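Mods, move this if it's the wrong board.
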Amino acid sequence: MALESREARENSTEELVKRYRIDVMQMARYLPWLAEHAGKQVSDTYQNDNMSHTIPFPVYDSTLLSFIKEFQRTSMIDRNYVYVYSRNRLRSAEDEKRFIEQADIKNMKELAGILSKYVIEGNVRGAVWTEGVTNGVYYAALSKMKEIIEFWGKEARDVR
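Not the wrong board. Structure tokens:
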């Protein structure tokens, strides 16, 4: 009984809002930039005539790199994001966007998992960071999380 009560408290609306509020609001400052750059290229490939015998490497927009680094420092980063994808049968950006659109307060962990997938996989395959901006998933997930926090945070204060 005590375990069930503690688990219910940890997943209460108030606890979820408290758990995610600071990180989401901190990351929300990137929303205007993410909206403006959705569908646009935010990286380039550096090549030089002197580098004809080397592999070209990506050069990212500085705001994108700041977003990635800041997200990695939040408590939202979820190394087990793979389970979010398998549990919810997410296989494409369209699946992700559909899920994000229908998400509510109970799906905050899943929304963080979607963001985490792009951030973590981008560490290995840099094109994934750009993909998150271009396909609009970063913007969609983060703006949905902000919307949920603002709605439920306000409602929790109104109840008291």
